[in-house]
Design goal:
Strand content: under 5%
Shape: globular
Distance between the termini: 67 Å
Strand order of the largest sheet: 1-2
Number of strands: 2
Order of helices and strands: HHHEEHHHHHHHH
Radius of gyration: 19 Å
Number of helices: 11
């Protein structure tokens, strides 16, 4: 366990510059009002959706999800991923109703008036056809969101559970900065009936994903990489690439918000 903790600490140290770049990204400085937040959610929702896909890929790889059932892998690892799945796929909303975090995010988008047609079209076309290029085209998915999803599914399709666990653990958790929460709290003061669900989603994400689930995910990654130096090296490289894709996603939001802000008013 000491050896595995050393690997985890090394990854944390080496990815810290990228984490700081995300936490201090310039996108937060241009989210000033409800309209800006709508644009942000229309990009971010793709990351919320593919997070759920990454989660289910892990569950499929680490537990038996087919019939007839047989014991698969380590019972400890099965327990870790199943506990995370329960929290992510069937959490509770503001009113105590069971919702996945993706469904909760869609509720937040509907409440604030964000356009959910693109992500809903993407999901529906993909569900019907399994064709990613067609789903991207039909939904007019932003290029930065498309690149983000493509990277995630590249890791999913690698069938390497330790890489899936690594980007799940180090590439997704603890990336909501205090600055962003301060902005959301300010907008909430002016529009309490428009972003209460979004504010709840973020607070829930920090409470559950950033604390309890992050500890479970760290243990899961340690279990899967074990003492295999090659797996740890691959896990670190995949994590760094996933963080770069997050930066590129935020760059896409920033460029769209800047384009709107710089557009001259009609006269």
């Amino acid at each position: 366990m000491i050896r595995m903790n050393e690997h985890i600490e090394r990854i944390k140290k080496n990815i810290e510059p990228l984490r700081q770049e995300i936490i201090h990204h310039k996108v937060y400085s241009v989210i000033r009002d409800l309209d800006d937040l709508k644009v942000f959610t229309q990009y971010h929702v793709y990351a919320v959706w593919d997070f759920m896909s990454l989660l289910k890929a892990l569950q499929n790889n680490l537990t038996c999800t087919s019939i007839p059932w047989f014991p698969k892998g380590s019972a400890d690892t099965r327990h870790l991923i199943n506990e995370i799945v329960v929290g992510e796929e069937s959490d509770v909303d503001l009113f105590g109703n069971r919702k996945s975090h993706f469904e909760l995010y869609l509720d937040a988008m509907h409440q604030c008036g964000a356009n959910t047609a693109p992500i809903e079209t993407f999901v529906n076309v993909l569900k019907e056809t399994g064709d990613f290029p067609l789903a991207y085209q039909a939904s007019k998915t932003p290029e930065a969101a498309k690149a983000f999803v493509d990277f995630t599914f590249g890791i999913i399709n690698s069938k390497k559970d330790y890489l899936q666990s690594a980007i799940f653990t180090f590439g997704r958790e603890d990336l909501i900065p205090g600055m962003f929460m301060a902005i959301i709290n300010d907008i909430h003061k002016n529009f309490p009936n428009n972003i209460s669900v979004f504010k709840y989603y973020l607070e829930r994400h920090i409470e559950v994903d950033g604390d309890h689930h992050s500890h479970l995910a760290l243990q899961m990654t340690a279990n899967l990489c074990g003492n295999d130096e090659q797996k740890w090296r691959e896990a670190e490289l995949a994590t760094m690439e996933s963080l770069k894709k997050r930066i590129a996603l935020w760059d896409g939001v920033y460029e769209q918000l800047k384009a709107v802000a710089d557009k001259p008013l009609a006269v």
